[in-house]
Amino acid sequence: MPEVRLVGPNGEQVGIVSIHDALKLAQEADLDLVEVAATARPPVCKLMDYGKYKYESAMKAREARRNQAHTIIKEIKLRPKIDPHDYETKKGHVVRFLKAGDKVKVTIMFRGREQSRPELGFRLLQRLAEDVTELGFVESQPKQDGRNMIMVIGPHKKKAEAKAEKAAARSRRGDAPAREAGTAEPQE
């Protein structure tokens, strides 16, 4: 590898130079000679501050991770013979999870003779899906898995949108009590 195609620090093409001349140019400019395309003929090298490049790429990756929303799958477990009040409570949990932008995995657990009546669980899951249609959609249809029947409901809103709405609501609530507190007269 006696020659390399050299790219300058600002992206300009220097041309094909010998490796010794490229190293000399790098030393004079107080930069690093970095090979960017080893398989090209001749190999492509660039003059850059490699430490600065690594730092900037790490900062970009950290910023991308910060802006990334993690979708969490929450799980709710039900039984086929559930009391109406218990059903409403579980449905409230599903609604809360969907409003927060999380997916919900709904599991119906069958025991004993209940296993011979999977249509009870199927109807219960369909009812739950209909009750939360404005917040979520059925991502995977109900399917029997041994003693359990499983269905996944996904939210219509993304996690980031739900967080932004929640923050806006919190700031609106935070302003109102502060104004009321300022108008109260001190008591002695």
Automatic annotation (TrEMBL):
The residue ranges of the Translation initiation factor 3 N-terminal domain are 2-64
Domain Translation initiation factor 3 C-terminal per the UniProt entry, residue ranges: 73-155
Any matching Pfam family: IF3_C
- Bias (Basic and acidic residues) occurs at 161-178
Q: Classify the source by domain of life.
A: Bacteria
- One example of a Gene Ontology biological process annotation: ribosome disassembly
Region listing for Disordered, in residue ranges: 155-188
NCBIfam families noted in UniProt: infC
How this chain assembles, per its entry, is: Monomer.
Q: Which family does it belong to?
A: Belongs to the IF-3 family.
Primary role: IF-3 binds to the 30S ribosomal subunit and shifts the equilibrium between 70S ribosomes and their 50S and 30S subunits in favor of the free subunits, thus enhancing the availability of 30S subunits on which protein synthesis initiation begins.
This protein is called Translation initiation factor IF-3
